Amino acid sequence: MKNEKRTIVISIILGLIFLIISSLLADITNDMYSSVGKFITFKWLINLILVLLLSLILIIYHFRNSSKRQMEEILNNQKGFTEPTMPNEDEELDPLKNEETYKYILENLSKDEKELLREYIFNDTKTRNFSYRNGIAMGLKSNNVLYISSNISRGPKLKFPFNIQPWAWEMLIKNPKYLK
């Protein structure tokens, strides 16, 4: 929200600067036009160059802010994720209840999710790198099958390490039927 307001304010300021420069050039070129003649093409060329320069400045500014905004969104999305908490000492831990939940999650995986998890198991690795924009990995993360182990990206495309949860690893090793 702040960045959008900032972009609007900068656009207005640059627009006003353009109008001031344009009107100054119009006064200068009108005087010169009467004495020189076909100066209108030069006047048009200068105005075109100014418009292109101001547009370029706006594009660069907007691009820099949008990439910053994307990183802020990524970090904010990760801050919103809450890990499951352990029960208090007063509450009993019911492993059967968790196991039923885990079975339900693994039984209802989509074809793409199964394919992604198959690569963990068949490659015997507990970590793979994905972008935050990978919907399959983020879906598995929201179901608590995967988790992001580090906020540090790897590679040029902002890929982050996604680890498979220990419970998912064990259940998929014991029951590969979930991946078929």
Blueprint of the fold:
Elements lengths: L1 H35 L3 H41 L14 H13 L3 H12 L4 E5 L3 H8 L3 E3 L10 E6 L1 H9 L6
Antiparallel strand pairs: 1-3, 2-3
Helix pairs in contact: 1-2
Secondary structural class? mainly alpha
Number of strands: 3
Q: DSSP helix count?
A: 6
The major pleated sheet works out as: 3 strands, antiparallel
Global outline:
rod-shaped
CATH class of the largest domain: Mainly Alpha
Lateral strand order in the biggest sheet: 1-3-2
| SSE topology string | HHHHEHEEH
What does this entry show, briefly?
With 180 residues, the protein is mostly helical. It has helices at residues 2-36, 40-80, 95-107, 111-122, 135-142, 166-174; strands at residues 127-131, 146-148, 159-164. A 3-stranded antiparallel sheet has the order 1-3-2.
Plain-language structure description:
The protein has 180 residues and is mostly helical. It folds into 2 domains: 2-80; 95-179, Orthogonal Bundle (Arc Repressor Mutant, subunit A), CATH 1.10.10. The chain is built from 6 helices and 3 strands, in the order ααααβαββα. It has helices at 2-36, 40-80, 95-107, 111-122, 135-142, 166-174; strands at residues 127-131, 146-148, 159-164. Strands 1-3-2 form a 3-stranded antiparallel beta sheet. Helix 1 (2-36) runs antiparallel to helix 2. The radius of gyration is 29 Å and the shape is rod-shaped. Residues 79-87 and 89-96 have low confidence and may be disordered.
